[in-house]
Amino acid sequence: MGAWKWGYSPKVEKFIPLGSFSADRYLIIATRVIENLGWKLSHVSATGIIAYTSISFQSYSEEVSIRINSNFALFKSECIGVQMLFTDYGKNEQNMERFFNEFEYVEYHLEGIWEQEMDAFEQLKATQDDSYFERAPLVNKDKIKNVLYLFYPQKGYRVTPVIVLINIFFWLFCVVFLNIAIVLYIRGKLGQQGDVFQLQSLYLKLGANSRALVLKGEWWRLLTQQFMHFSFFHLFFNMYALIYIGLMVEPKLGSTKTLVVYILSGVCGGILSVGMHTTGIMGGASGPILGMFGALLALMLCKAFEKNANKALFISTAILVAYMLINGAFTRRVDNAAHIGGLISGFVICYLLYNERPFRVGMPVAVRYMVSILLVVLTAGLSILWMPNYQQKEFEKLQGDFLENSRAFNQVYYIERSFPKAQKLQIIQSSGLDKWRANQHIVKQMEQLVLDEKYQLRRRYNSKMAEKGYLLASLMYKQTEAGNKQYQREINAVMIEMSELGEELRQRLEKIE
Fold it and tell me: Using an 8 Å Cβ cutoff, are 167 and 239 in contact?
């Protein structure tokens, strides 16, 4: 088994001196080798060959190329898709070994038919475009000489590194801002005495996404949330994916259109995220990154790549996108709504921008830009109109009062036997009947609020608890007034029912969450 190759885009390369071989002779043998190995031949010309291996469980498909450079041939086997753990599991080394082992066999069996092979190759070269090597799917990766090149704008890769750098610098700014806030809080210069340190509120100040705030008119959060990351690893893996997909999409789509796809699909991902998450904060570049993957799928549909390259790219991209969506569906704290919204919108927007005749209707490029923006604006506007503006904050304030009254009822359980009857009745009245009557009034206020399923469940629980609590306090009052245990069985039954209500609420909330 070959040695594993590690890196951003795992590959093996080998320079082969041609010696007495002519370039054409070498390429003829290489073409037959590729056919014998069952690899899909994508391009053959005087300057070289490109082929694609079949899919495997080790590292999807690989691009195998042979470039003629002066008196040398450069053999390269490179993984197409993002590799798990950044390794090719030895597949590229295996490709090289298989190629050179087969090379000797083919060379021997072509000895007697060189003239007709040369004629056929000359005819084939006449039909090929030598410039295809400059448009091949992985050509931009060859320009990345070291890790610093990933952040350097260059031809066919201008807007992606700029977006990456904005994400990195914004994350660094957030880190500095949050650390300063923590220091000020510790020194007592941030907030009032007794205030709890609210990390979420600081992220909101920095531009995180929030359903309540977006529905109140802060639509700019749909843009700023695309550059918000909550940890180094959140940033690292998003930027890794962005660089990979940017190297694939931007050369075909162009820098301006790539930027438009990134921003607009990020907005759409943010809208769906707002629709699916009624509380909490959201942020991250994964929405627009999935938009870029959607754009790559649209480019494949539009046949932007050669047929065999298209197939290899589709397999690796489909596996990666499926992994991200499945992982998002089963992982807490992953915003899969943003992923899905970004993927679908990225596909549609790229399809519109790349095609001169989308849906068989001729459109100038300016019109296609306007249609794309209009679709996103309409989607945002209709979604915001459709989404109910839940009143969680108002509920939480009332819930605090409800719980305070409920805790006050605990005083009833600690009434001393030695207390006079009048004092006992007064405690049950003030800490029991009055508090539960107040809670019944709070529930009526809660019923006026627009709430999501989880909060509606809590409201129904509060309503039942207020009813049972008042009944319990009433029974206790009657028993104290009578001076005997005639109501004890009823009191015990109500207390059991209240306990069961709490357990039922906990179980139903777990199912929702």
Answer: yes
Mean pLDDT of the chain: 87
CA distance 202 to 179: 11
Write out the two tokens for 21: 């071989």
- Give yes or no for residue 37 having a pLDDT over 60: yes
Can you tell me the distance from the alpha carbon of 220 to that of 200, in angstroms, rounded to the nearest whole number? 18
Q: How far apart, in Å, are the Cα atoms of 222 and each of 217, 267, 274, 283, 482?
A: 11, 5, 9, 9, 64
| Res 2 pLDDT > 70 | no
What are the structure tokens assigned to 281, written together?
Answer: 């904060």
State which H helix or E strand residue 64 sits in.
strand 62-69
Of 115, 114, 95, 116, which Cα lies nearest the Cα of 106? 114
Rounded Cα gap, residues 251 and 238, in angstroms: 20
The pLDDT, as a whole number, for residue 77 is: 92
Q: What is the full DSSP assignment across 325-353? A: HHHHHHSTT--HHHHHHHHHHHHHHHHHH
User: Distance (Å, rounded) from C-alpha 459 to C-alpha 398?
Assistant: 10
Chain centroid to CA 199: 22
246-249 — which CB contacts under 8 Å span 24+ positions?
246/157, 246/159, 246/160, 246/161, 246/163, 246/164, 246/292, 247/140, 247/141, 247/144, 247/157, 247/160, 248/137, 248/140, 248/296, 248/313, 249/292, 249/295, 249/296, 249/299, 249/350
User: 152: which residues sit within 8 A by CB, 6+ positions away?
Assistant: 161
Of 12-21, 113-122, 177-186, 481-490, the poorest mean pLDDT is in 113-122
pLDDT score at 122: 80
Residues 6+ positions from 74 with CB-CB distance below 8 Å: 13, 14, 15, 16, 65, 66, 67
Question: Rounded distance, CA 302 to CA 202, Å?
Answer: 44
How far is residue 492's CA from residue 486's CA, in Å, rounded to a whole number?
Answer: 12
pLDDT the model gives residue 508: 83
Q: Is 129 exposed, middle or buried (0-12, 13-18, 19+ CB in 10 A)?
A: exposed
- With a pLDDT cut of 90, the percent of the chain lying above it is 46
The greatest distance separating any two alpha carbons of the chain, rounded to the nearest whole angstrom, comes to: 121
Q: Kindly give, in sequence order, each residue whose CB lies less than 8 Å from that of residue 194, ignoring residues fewer than 6 positions away.
A: none
Q: Give the confidence band of 100 by pLDDT, cuts at 50, 70, 90.
A: very high
Query: Tokens 């639509």 correspond to what residue?
Result: 219
Q: Coil, strand, or helix at residue 42?
A: strand
